[in-house]
Amino acid sequence: MIRRALLVGLSAAFCACAAPDDVTYRPAAQILPANIRKIAIRPMLNKTQQFGLEDKLTLRVRDEFLRDGRYSIVPESDSDGVVVGTLTRYILQPVQYDAVLTPTVYKLRILLTLQFIDRTANTILWEEPNLEGSLIYPASTLQGGLTEEQARESIWDQLSRTVVRRVLEGFGSVTGTSQRAISDQAPPHEPPAPPPKPINPNPY
């Protein structure tokens, strides 16, 4: 009886260890190095043709870090690490039209390249290119529509959360857009090909 009870107990333990929930791979969270306790947010650079974007995004990213509260946000001279962002693309495209070809729906995409600098070692710890915020929205002339400025405000919320997640949770927490997927040009219009010439236009 003792032997049988022992076998039953071992079998149950084996089944419990083999349960799917217990063997799921859970990688450890990637956190910043231990020497980084205070973070600075450098004013964003703006390489787009749109004026004034950098200030609003910088403030929104700062607010998001303060809301999270895990790290102190300080001036760069007092910091251990620095968040550096560069706005690289601003793409506004109409994606739907009405019967008279007036745009009724737009898609706005804003791309950001992000770096994190370890000030103690004076090195770039990592770089994340082409982080994207995007929004498809109806034109402001329609009921419930948005202005371009309102659409930007929504994207600042997206990008600020993306920046904080990438800094605090590490590689793999967010994903940048493939360079091949970035285009602000409409597909080229190709003229129709001329009709083929007859093989023998004068058979007689």
Describe the structure.
The chain has a single domain (30-173), classed as 2-Layer Sandwich (Double Stranded RNA Binding Domain). α3 packs across α4. It contains 4 helices and 6 strands; from the N terminus they run ααββαββββα. β4 and β5 (103-118) form a beta hairpin. Strands 1, 2, 3, 4, 5 and 6 form a 6-stranded mixed β-sheet that branches. The chain has 204 residues and is α/β, with parallel strands linked by helices. Helices cover 28% and strands 28% of the residues. Residues 186-195 have low confidence and may be disordered.
What is the radius of gyration? Answer: 27 Å
The N- to C-terminal Cα distance equals 107 Å
Overall tally of structural domains: 1
For the residues shown, what is the average pLDDT?
83
Using the coordinates shown, work out and report the CATH topology: Double Stranded RNA Binding Domain
Quote the beta fraction. 25-35%
Helical segment tally? 4
CATH architecture: 2-Layer Sandwich
User: CATH superfamily membership, which one?
Assistant: Lipoprotein like domain
Number of distinct beta strands: 6
Low-confidence blocks of residues: 186-195
- Pattern of helices and strands: HHEEHEEEEH
